[in-house]
Amino acid sequence: MSPHILEWKWHVTMLTSILHRMTGVGLYIGAFVMVGWLLSVALGAEAYNVYAGLVGSPLGLIVLFLFTLAAMYHLANGVRHLFWDAGTGYEVGTANSSGIFTIVFAIVATGGIWAYILFGGVLS
Fold first, then answer.
1. Where are the domains of the chain?
2. pTM, whole model, 2 decimals?
3. FRET label pair with 12: which of 45, 101, 102, 114, CA 20 to 30 Å apart?
4. Residue 3: what pLDDT?
């Protein structure tokens, strides 16, 4: 019989598995945000300005930031899974290291993208 969830010792590969599922759901929901943007473009300038106002609000920017973070994490962990599909990277040390790299990559890549957005004049 498997032990209760509270009896498990947490490790990186467990966290990356849970985060992969969570970011997948987040990307699915975020796709609706992108469809809303496309719909607002199709409906004309007035609809687009209303939607841009919503997305440009502090809450909208947080949603876009989280969407970016989810996309970068899911991308990195997807590449990690491709290596696993090729039959490499299963060793405990390698799996832990690649899991940590995946998390760090997602944070750094998201930070870089948003630094460019905020300081590169994209939102001007």
1. 57-124
2. 0.88
3. 114
4. 66
